[in-house]
Specification:
Bound molecules: cobalt (II) ion
Radius of gyration: 15 Å
Strand content: 35-45%
Low-confidence stretches: none
Number of strands: 9
Shape: globular
Distance between the termini: 12 Å
Length: 134
């Protein structure tokens, strides 16, 4: 079911500072910021030879990462994202296997314009896990 690691996401309080760290100090290619109001986040992507790193900054008052940053004020790893070929088939197989899907269970359009879903972290080794259809 699982394909490539699409990205590792890091929640940050200051996406401009995170961009400077990766662009200027670590010498990586960093995208322009993109607002995703439907997900309550502003994102940038760092493109590495074998995967991407996603920075998430809270956007709006009800951002789902605000609480995470209260617990992790320096920022921290927020989720992993794996690629799948057919996200609805993957979802149905995972539900049949006893895993919980966050939200209403319907894929939403993510930062790459592709359908995404999140699996409950308590069912995935304490790690929030995103699936993206490619
Ligand atoms: Co993600």
């Amino acid at each position: 079911m699982l394909g490539r690691l699409n990205h590792v996401a890091i929640a940050v309080k200051d996406i401009a500072a995170a961009t400077r760290l990766y662009r200027e100090t670590l010498g990586a290619a960093v995208s322009a910021p993109q607002d995703l109001p439907e997900h309550g986040v502003r994102v940038v992507f760092v493109t590495l030879p074998n995967t991407k790193i996603e920075f998430l900054e809270p956007l709006g008052v009800a951002s789902p990462i605000a609480k995470f940053l209260e617990k992790n004020p320096d920022g921290g790893m927020h989720h992993l994202c794996y690629e799948v070929g057919d996200i609805r088939a993957a979802r149905d197989a995972l539900i049949a296997g006893g895993l919980r899907i966050l939200g209403d269970g319907e894929p939403k359009i993510g930062a790459h314009g592709k359908p995404v879903l999140f699996l409950h972290p308590k069912d995935c080794l304490g790690t929030l896990t995103e699936l993206e259809e490619v």
